Structures are given as C-alpha cells and as structure tokens.
C-alpha cells in the first residue's frame, strides 16, 4: 500500500483546490517560511481524525477554514481527501483504492466519508488502527514532535511503541471488555436487589389472589340471581303497560266523537257570526255617509262665515287706501318748496368758481418769469464748475502718479520685509525640519506600538469568538433536545388520534358498526356517532360522568327508528354482535326536574345537574337531558347522602364515582375505568396540542437566538478580518513615514541654498528704493501750484450758488400760493356737484309719489269688484246647506232599521256558543283521562328504564345482553334469600384486591425470568474475565517481542548514525510491561552516559531519528511524512540521515518537508509551496530525476 494523492480545498491557506500526487520513493516539499508547507502535514493529520485544534496550531477547529484576505472573502468550508492504493489489501476493506474525506463547515457541522460514503470518525480510526499511520502513530512526525519522542512524559512515548507493537486494537478491545464487565457487575447487583424485593411480595400476593378468586365466584352467582329478579320485574311492568295502552285506545275513541259534534255546531255558529259581520258592515257604511253629510254641512257653514268676514275686511281696506291718497297730496307740496331752494344755491356756486379761475391764471404767469431767471444763473454756475474740474483732474493725475510711485516704494519695502521675514521663516523651518525629523522618528515608534496593540486585540477577538462558539454549541444542544421532545409529543398525539379514530375503548361490536357506517354511507345515513363523542366535559367531572352514563356512553345516536332498524338488520345478517341505538326522534326531556337545581343550589357539596355540566351542540340538548337530566353531581359521599334525603327520584354521583341510586342503594369504593376513558383521551389530545404550540414557540426562539449568535460570530469574523486589514495598513503607514523621514533630510539641504539666494535679492531691492524717493519729491511740488488755482475757482462758485438759492426760495413761495388757489377751486366744484345730486334726488322722489297715488287708485277699484263676487258666493252656499239637511235625516232612519235586525242574529249566536262550551267541557274531561293514562305509562316506562339502568350500572350489561343470562327460577322467594346469604359471605371477605390475581401471575413470571437473567449475567461475567486475560496475554507477548526488536535496531542504528556510541531502551517494570515506563539511554561517542536533556539540540534530533528508523525497520509503515525533523543537524549528519532515508524507501514511501540542501539531493519528486497572492498558498511540482537526465 502507498499514498497516491492528497486533495485540499479551503484548509488554512489553501483557498483554491490543490492536488498533490505521490509516487513511490521520496517526495519533497519546499518553500519559504510562512508559505504554508506545514499546513500539508496538518491537513493529513486532520483528515485522519485529529480533534485537537492546538495540535493543528489553532485555538479552535474553525481556524482551519480559510479566513480570507484583503482581496478574497472567507470560505464556508474546509475539505481534505487522502487516497491510498490498497491493491495489497493492507487496510481491512474490500477496495483496491481507498479515499478518506473530512469536511468542516463554519457552522460547526462536520462530515467523514470513506470512498464518498458517509461514516463515523470511529470507522476511520478502526480502519487505520495498528497500521502506524494514525494520528498517534509514527508515520506523521511534525515540527516539535522530535522533542515529544524524547520527552519525560511516559504516556506520550508509549503511544508510538504500542502502535509499532500492533497492540492498539487489543488495548481498545480490552477497554471495551472492561467497560462491559463493569456494566455486567452493576446489572447483577441491580437484578439481585429486585429478586430480594420480589420474594417479599410473592406470598402475600398468592393469599390475596386466592381470596379474589373466591370473591369473583360468589359475585358471579349473585349477579345471575339479581339479573333474573330484575328481568321478572321488567316483564311485570310490560304487562301493566299493555293494559294501560288498551284503556287509552277506548278513551281516545270517545274523544274523537265529541270532536265531530263540536265541528258541526262550530260551523253553524260561524255562519251566524258572518251574518252579524255583514250587518255591522252595512250599518258602518251608513254611519260613514251620515258623518260625511254632517261634516259637509259644517264645512259649508264655515265657508259662509269666511266670505262674510272677507267682505268686512274689504270695507276696512277701502277706507285705509282713501286716507293714504290724501297723505300723498300733502307731501307733494313740501318737496316742491325744497327744490326751489336748491336751484338758487346752484347759481351762487357757479359765480364763485369763475372768480377763482381768473386769479389762478395771473399767478401762473408770475411763476414762469421767475423760472427763466433762475435758469440763467444755473448756466454760469455750471461753467465755473467745469473749469474747477479740469484743475482737479490735473492735480489728481499727478497725485496718482505720485501714489503709484509710493505703491512701488511700499511694494519694495514690503518685498524687503518679506525677504527678511522669509529668511527668518527659512531659519525657523530649518529648526522645524530638525524637530520634525525627531517627531517622525517618535511616530514610527508609536506605529510599531499600535501594531503590537492590534495583535493583542486580535487575540481578544479570537477568545471572544471561542466563547460565542461554545454558547452556540450549548444552545444548539438545547434546540436539538427540545426538537426531540417536540417529536415525542407529536408521536403521542398521533397515537391518541389513531386510538380516537379506531374507537379504542369501545366494545368490538360498536367499533365494527361505526367503521361500517363510515365505509358505507347508505348504511350509515342518519348516524351521529357514539354518545361519548358528542359531548365535552371538564377534567374534574370525567370519572363522575363515566359512572353516571355507564354503558350508555357506547350508545350509537341516530336520527330515527328506521336508521336503527336498518343497521340492526345488517348486524344480524352478518353476525356482527349487538349494539344499542338511541334514535333522537324517541328522546324526551325530563320535564319534572325544572326547579330541582334552584332547590339544591345552596346545598353544601352540590355541583349541578349532570346534563347542565356537559358542553354539546344545541341539537343534542334533549339527548343529554334524557341521559343525564335525572342525575345530580356532588363533591363527595357525605354531600351525596345529605342531598339524597332531600330528593328521592334522582341518581346522585360523586366526583370519585360513588353512587346513591333513587331507591337508596349505595355503590362505591375504589374505581378503575373498565374501558379507555374517551373523555381523558380527548383532553389529553388538547393538552398535547397546547404543549406542542409551546414547544414550537420555544424552538423558534432558540432558532432565532442561534441565528443571532451566528450573526455575532460573523461580526467577530469580520472584525478579525478588519484587524488583519488594519495590521497591513499600519505596515504601509510605517513605510510611508520612513519615506517622509528621507524627504525631511532633503528639505534641510534645500533650505540652506534658499537662504543664500535671498541675501543677493535684498541688496538689489534697496538700490531701487532710493531712485523712487527722488521722483516722488518732484511730483509733490507741482501739486501745490494747482491747489492754489482750485481755491480761487471754488470761491466764485460759492457766490453764484448763493444768488441762485435766493431766487429759488421766491419761486417756492409762489408755487405754494398757486396750490392754495387750486384747493379752494376744487372745494367749490365739489359743493356744486353735491347740489346737483340733491336736486336730482328730489325730482326722482316727486315721480315716485306720483306713481304711488296711481297704484292706490287702481287697488281701490279692484277691492270693490272683489266685494261683489263674495256676496254672490254666499247665496250659493245657503242653497247647498238646505239640500244636505234633508239627506241627513233619510240616512238616520236606515241606520235604526238595520240595527234591529242585527240584535236578532246576536241572540242566536249566543245560544250556539253555549252549546260549544258544553261540548268543550266533555272533551276536557276525556283529555284529563288520556293524560292520566299517559302519566301511568310514563311512570311504568321510567321504572322499566331504571331497572335496565340498574342492570348496566351494577353489571355493565344492556337489557338484550341480560336476557342471555336468563334462567328458570322456580321460587323467587328462595332466590331472594340466597342473594342475602351471598351478600353476607361477600361482606365477610372484606376488602378484596381483584388485580392481585393478575399481579401475582405477573410477579411470579418476572421472578422466574429475573433468576434466569441473573444466571446468564454471571456466565457473561466469567466469559468477559476470560477474554480480558487472553487479551492481556496476547498484548504482553506481542509488546515484549516488538520492544526487543526495536531495542536491537535502536542500538545498531544509533551507532551507525553517530559513527559510534551506545543507546538502548529500558523498561522500569518487567513484571507489568503494559503499564511500565520506557526510558531511553544514549551515549554519543566520546561522552559519558548522561540525561537526554543534557544532549545538544543536534544530538537530541539524531537520537530521535535513530529511534524513528529503528521502529520503521521493526514495523514499516506504507508511508511516512516528516516535517523538518533534520533541521537541527549539521551537514555531515544530514548526509548520514539522507543515506538511511534512501535505504528505507524500499519498504516505505516518504514525504519530507525540508529546507536542507543535503536532504533535497536525494528527493525524487519535488513540490514547491509559494504565496504568489498574499495569504493564499499555491503548489508547483517538478520531477528531479527528469531534470537531472
């Protein structure tokens, strides 16, 4: 067997999938530090089942998944596959090629596969056990494990020797056998305790069982006698019911005859009543005509009076209008006088306006003359101002030139100051440059400190990540636990629902019937279900209701007798047993219990009438009133006895199932349901629904919490990623600051050059400043002569301005006077306009009064015409009044005539009513007789039902089932005496435990079974002890043999590698080799025998290599992976190591991770690990033998 191939994807730095093909010989893996070489051996160790993150150089298992870089996202899974050539069947599996695969997801889930088939970690470990290639074997030697081989920890050292000796599988089997032996011992102790406990129970149970059997025999005889007495009483009741039925038939016929007579007389009375109604209608019609005529007379009289009043009103209006016409004539005279006065005022206003217009024309002429004079003065003033401006412009121009020169001078001064300032600034910069150099140096130190701080922060984030992952796992365990609980509850619910659907707990005949009705819709037409299905009751009343209903719980409810007959016929034809049906059409309510609840409501212990405590559909109210309306529910037997003294005809049931029957008998004791309690099952389903809802909410909450933790973990992963980015950023900052430091040095040299240039420029500027000062002096002298000329012109301008101002004041006064005249003129015009408007108003009023007078005269003419018309209408109304008086008297005569005829018919109707009352009395007597007969029948039927219920309540037998127990009893008196005798014997037996019969059989069987089990366990214990002895013997022999061979090889190889010296292996306890410590003694050439810890690093490494080669010579492994184990050796020892390695390639395949040139020279195939992209490892390969050729 050899290693063919290694495939890695997402493991540590291997972000992309890589494949490494291995061949026989030596394969080398090389690359720079940090490129991911050691991740190769870590991946092999991990795929073979390594569970310690620390061994894989991580803090938690998720660290092995590629965590991303600044350019790549993290992966969600790591996968490694290892393929072996197994054509020689080295591995105990029937495949010529074996691939072991392991996957890990970021969520924490993992998978193991053998040839792509899912398996357990245990399967992989058993497959490679004792082959030397396991994680505890000697085929994988990583960095630091060389020291582990030579360590002071005996258990670490023993693992390699046990793997080489091939006793790991025996050791594993021994541990399993010891575990089984421990369990067997515990089981023996537990069974012996149970046997002792059962021995104390068997004898008492045997006595109780015999007593119970006698009780059952006596009870069966008593049952037979009591059932036959009940059946005899039922037969007597049926005979009485037949006699009452015959009497009912006779009375019912008499009742029918009287009904026929009543119908005949009622028909005649009805005709008489109809005639009276016809006369009443005629009389009513005539009365209505009489009232209409009377009302018409009243209406006509009212109209006559109204017309009379209207004529009087017209006379009044005529008088009023004539007075108004006279008033209009008087007002007309007054208005004409006022109009004459206004016309005189109008003439006066026109005269005043004419005078004001003449004055305004004169003042305007004066205003124009004064304006022309002012314009002449303004022209001369502008001429003087123009000359003055020319002087000012010349002066301004020269000043501007002087100012420009001053500006140049200032600029030169400022430039000189700036240069001096710049010199000072450059000197300061030079100083700052030196300080900045020191500052940047300090910043570089701080950046390095920040880098270290970021690394610490990363460690904290990793710690926090582990904490959250532990929380996540704990919560996941809780979630899975509650999910399992949910599945258990759902299974319970399904089981109960299945029992409900199959009518578990009902008799077989009831179950068969209900099943047939569901399957055959024609047969099941009208069937509602069993009584127990149609009701819901509170938990506390379940036992009471089960006892109260008894067998009637299993009655099948249907619509009517036809439905029941159809199914009974089918049961008989198919021999399917007997079933009791309850047709809803036959059910009647217990009407005589209406007031019983109000009577008992204050009674201590009273809970209610049973029918009122049931929840059901309205259509079944009568059904449950029939079944339970005669039953009272109370809290206990004391309350039941107390209430039974108050009510005699009710069955009283306690919450514990005790009964007081209407006759006074008491049934009680411990109660055990003989059938599966249907009520409890329905309630249990409801409770399970509630629990399932609660668990669904809880698992949803857990799921949400898991999601929240997952998000937090992702957040921490992101922070870790950000941390890595920050570290890179700090590195980049450090590089930039080093560049800044170089720039600061360059700036220092530039500053020295700049200071020299500024000194030369300063000298030139000072010479230029002297020339500018001389030109400014000349310009200032010319400005002084222009200033004198300007002062003379300004004096002339001031005199001319004063004269112009005086003339302007005169024209302003004239302007105010003209404005005053205009205001007076406007006021007069306004008064004249108001006068015109008043004249117009008075003229319009005269026209209005004239029109009013004409209208009043027209109105007076119309009123006189209206008065004539009203007088004519009054005469017509008087004629109509006379005609209606005659008609009213005729109608009154006819009313009296019809009233007399009606009285004769009323007398005949009374005679017929008296006759009907006589017949009704006779009918009521017959009805009373029928009712009495029905009451007797109902009482007998109730007695019959009570007897049937007694049979059920005492023996749980229906009436039809009780008939099967019927037998011939010659003398019922003797039978009654025998019943009393049996009751006495049963009483003497006292308390009887019926269940003890079955319990005794079960305990006896269990006792025998446990004794047999104890013997089997004792035999198993002896067998396990024998197996452990044989395993220890085999392990002893095999370990001693292997140890001896390894020791010989170690001594020989040590001598060859060290070119002399001695070495051997020692056991400190040869009596117990399997637990003994293994010591290594080494003496390199030229040195004394000494402690291994005192050897140099190279000597320790070579000693460990000698031990490794000695184990490989004793028991070669198919392959061996070595990670830089020769790093501490010098060149000479490297050569020896390489020679030994070539020798061992005949039996084993080697994969070596190395940096040493001497080792590389013997490698056949070489793989290079590089990081072309930061943080991502790549693989390149070359066959060295081909290169050499």
TrEMBL record:
Keywords, sorted A to Z: ATP-binding, Coiled coil, Cytoplasm, DNA-binding, Nucleotide-binding
GO CC terms in record: chromosome; cytoplasm
Keyword rRNA processing carried by entry: no
Record-level GO BP terms: chromosome condensation; chromosome segregation; DNA replication; sister chromatid cohesion
Sequence positions that bind ATP: 32-39
CDD domains with a match to the protein in the record: ABC_SMC_barmotin
Main localization, broad class: cytoplasm
InterPro entries attached to this UniProt entry: P-loop_NTPase, RecF/RecN/SMC_N, SMC, SMC_hinge, SMC_hinge_sf, SMC_prok
UniProt cross-references to Pfam families, sorted A to Z: SMC_hinge, SMC_N
UniProt-recorded Gene Ontology molecular function terms: ATP binding; ATP hydrolysis activity; DNA binding
Domain named SMC hinge: residues: 525-644
Subcellular location: Cytoplasm
Coiled coil regions in record: 167-201, 227-331, 367-499, 685-726, 783-880, 909-950, 1000-1037
Tree of life domain: Bacteria
Function: Required for chromosome condensation and partitioning.
Assembly mode: Homodimer.
Alphabetical list of PANTHER family matching this protein: STRUCTURAL MAINTENANCE OF CHROMOSOMES PROTEIN 3
HAMAP family: Smc_prok
This protein's domain notes: Contains large globular domains required for ATP hydrolysis at each terminus and a third globular domain forming a flexible hinge near the middle of the molecule. These domains are separated by coiled-coil structures.
Family: Belongs to the SMC family.
Name of the featured protein: Chromosome partition protein Smc
The organism of origin for this protein: Paramaledivibacter caminithermalis (strain DSM 15212 / CIP 107654 / DViRD3)
Lineage of source species: Bacteria, Bacillati, Bacillota, Clostridia, Peptostreptococcales
Gene coding for it: smc
């Amino acid at each position: 067997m050899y290693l063919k191939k290694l495939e890695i994807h997402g493991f540590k730095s291997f972000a992309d999938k890589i494949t490494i093909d291995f061949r026989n010989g030596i394969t080398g893996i090389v690359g720079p530090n940090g490129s991911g070489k050691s991740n190769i051996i870590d991946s092999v160790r991990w795929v073979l089942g390594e569970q310690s993150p620390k061994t894989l150089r991580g803090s938690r298992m998720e660290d092995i998944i590629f965590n991303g870089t600044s350019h790549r996202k993290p992966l969600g899974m790591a996968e490694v596959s290892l393929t072996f050539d197994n054509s020689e069947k080295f591995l105990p599996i029937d495949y010529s090629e074996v691939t072991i695969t392991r996957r890990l997801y970021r969520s924490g889930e993992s998978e193991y596969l053998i040839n792509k088939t899912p398996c357990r970690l245990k399967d992989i470990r058993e497959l490679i056990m004792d082959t030397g290639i396991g994680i505890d074997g000697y085929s994988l030697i990583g960095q630091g494990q060389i020291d582990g081989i030579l360590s002071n920890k005996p258990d670490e050292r023993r693992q390699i020797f046990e793997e080489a000796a091939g006793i790991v599988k025996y050791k594993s089997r021994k541990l399993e056998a010891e575990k089984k032996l421990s369990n067997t011992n515990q089981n023996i102790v537990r069974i012996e305790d149970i046997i002792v406990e059962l021995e104390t129970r068997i004898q008492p149970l045997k006595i109780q069982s015999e007593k119970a059997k006698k009780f059952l025999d006596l009870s069966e005889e008593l049952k037979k006698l009591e059932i036959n007495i009940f059946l005899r009483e039922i037969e007597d009741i049926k005979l009485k019911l037949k006699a009452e039925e015959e009497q009912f038939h006779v009375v019912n016929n008499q009742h029918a005859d009287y009904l026929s007579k009543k119908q005949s007389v009622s028909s005649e009375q009805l005709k008489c009543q109809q005639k009276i109604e016809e006369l009443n209608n005629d009389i009513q019609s005539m009365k209505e005509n009489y009232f209409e005529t009377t009302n018409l007379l009243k209406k006509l009289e009212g109209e006559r009076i109204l017309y009379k009043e209207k004529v009087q009103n017209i006379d009044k209006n005529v008088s009023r209008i004539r007075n108004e016409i006279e008033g209009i004539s008087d007002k007309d005279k007054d208005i004409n006088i006022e109009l004459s006065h206004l016309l005189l005022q109008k003439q006066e206003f026109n005269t005043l306006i004419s005078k004001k217009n003449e004055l305004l024309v004169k003042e305007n002429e004066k205003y124009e003359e004064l304006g022309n004079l002012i314009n002449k003065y303004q022209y001369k003033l502008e001429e003087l101002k123009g000359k003055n401006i020319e002087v000012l412009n010349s002066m301004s121009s020269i000043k501007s030139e002087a100012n420009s020169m001053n500006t140049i001078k200032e600029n030169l001064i400022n430039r000189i100051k700036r240069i001096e300032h710049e010199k000072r600034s450059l000197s300061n910069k030079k100083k700052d440059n030196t300080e900045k150099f020191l500052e940047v140096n300090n910043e570089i130190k701080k950046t390095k400190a920040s880098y270290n701080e970021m690394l610490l922060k990363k460690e904290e984030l990793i710690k926090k990540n582990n904490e959250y992952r532990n929380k996540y796992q704990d919560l996941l365990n809780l979630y899975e636990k509650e999910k399992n609980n949910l599945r258990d509850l759902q299974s319970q619910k399904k089981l109960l629902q299945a029992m409900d659907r199959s009518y578990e707990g009902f008799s077989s005949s009831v179950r068969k019937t209900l099943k047939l009705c569901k399957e055959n819709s024609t047969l099941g037409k009208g069937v509602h279900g069993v009584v127990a299905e149609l009701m819901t009751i509170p938990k506390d009343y379940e036992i009471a209701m089960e006892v109260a209903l008894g067998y009637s719980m299993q009655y099948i409810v249907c619509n009517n007798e036809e439905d029941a007959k159809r199914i009974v016929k089918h049961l008989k034809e198919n021999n399917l047993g007997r079933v009791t049906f309850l047709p809803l059409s036959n059910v009647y309510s217990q009407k005589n219990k209406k007031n019983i609840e109000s009577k008992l409501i204050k009674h201590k212990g009273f809970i209610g009438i049973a029918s009122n405590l049931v929840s059901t559909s309205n259509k079944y109210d009568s059904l449950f009133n029939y079944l339970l309306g005669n039953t009272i529910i109370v809290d206990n037997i004391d309350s039941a006895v107390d209430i039974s003294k108050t009510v005699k005809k009710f069955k009283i049931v306690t919450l514990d199932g005790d009964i007081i029957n209407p006759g006074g008998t008491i049934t009680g004791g411990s109660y055990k349901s003989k059938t599966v309690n249907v009520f409890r099952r329905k309630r249990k389903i409801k409770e399970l629904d509630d629990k399932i809802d609660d668990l669904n909410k809880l698992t949803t909450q857990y799921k949400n919490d898991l999601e929240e933790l997952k998000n937090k973990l992702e957040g921490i992963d992101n922070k870790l990623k950000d941390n890595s980015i920050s570290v890179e950023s700090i590195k980049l900052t450090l590089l930039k600051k080093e560049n800044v430091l170089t720039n600061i040095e360059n700036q220092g040299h530039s500053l020295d050059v700049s200071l020299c240039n500024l000194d030369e420029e300063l000298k030139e500027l000072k010479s230029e400043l002297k020339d500018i000062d001389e030109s400014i002096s000349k310009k200032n002298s010319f400005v002084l002569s222009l200033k004198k000329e300007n002062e003379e012109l300004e004096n002339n301008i001031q005199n001319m301005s004063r004269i112009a101002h005086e003339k302007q004041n005169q024209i302003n006064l004239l302007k105010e006077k003209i404005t005053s005249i205009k205001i007076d003129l406007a006021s007069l015009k306004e008064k004249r306009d108001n006068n015109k408007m008043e004249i117009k108003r008075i003229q319009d009023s005269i026209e209005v009064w004239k029109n009013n007078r004409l209208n009043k005269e027209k109105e007076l003419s119309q009123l006189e015409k209206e008065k004539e018309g009203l007088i004519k209408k009054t005469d017509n109304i008087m004629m109509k009044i006379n005609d209606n008086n005659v008609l009213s008297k005729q109608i009154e005569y006819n009313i009296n005539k019809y009233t007399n005829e009606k009285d004769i018919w009323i007398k005949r109707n009374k005679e017929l009513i008296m006759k009907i009352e006589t017949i009704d009395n006779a009918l009521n007597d017959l009805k009373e007789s029928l009712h009495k007969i029905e009451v007797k029948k109902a009482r007998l039927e109730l007695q019959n039902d009570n007897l049937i219920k007694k049979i059920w309540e005492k023996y749980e037998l229906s009436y039809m089932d009780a008939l099967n127990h019927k037998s011939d009893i010659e003398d019922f008196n003797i039978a009654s005496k025998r019943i009393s005798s049996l009751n006495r014997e049963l009483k003497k037996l006292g308390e009887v435990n019926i269940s003890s019969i079955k319990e005794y059989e079960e305990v006896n069987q269990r006792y025998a079974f446990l004794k047999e089990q104890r013997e089997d366990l004792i035999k198993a214990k002896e067998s396990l002890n024998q197996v452990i002895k044989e395993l220890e013997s085999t392990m002893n022999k095999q370990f001693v043999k292997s140890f001896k061979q390894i020791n010989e090889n170690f001594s020989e190889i040590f001598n060859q590698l060290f070119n002399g010296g001695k070495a051997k292996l020692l056991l400190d306890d040869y009596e117990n080799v399997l637990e003994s410590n293994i010591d290594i003694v080494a003496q390199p050439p030229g040195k004394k025998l000494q402690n291994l810890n005192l050897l140099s690093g190279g000597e320790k490494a070579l000693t460990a290599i000698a031990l490794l080669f000695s184990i490989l010579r004793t028991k070669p492994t198919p392959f061996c992976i070595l990670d830089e184990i020769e790093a501490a050796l010098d060149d000479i020892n490297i050569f020896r190591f390489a020679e030994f390695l070539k020798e061992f390639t005949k039996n084993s395949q080697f994969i070596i991770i190395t940096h040493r040139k001497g080792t590389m020279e013997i490698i056949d195939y070489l793989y290079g690990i590089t990081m072309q992209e930061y943080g991502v490892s790549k693989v390149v390969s070359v066959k060295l033998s081909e290169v050499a050729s």
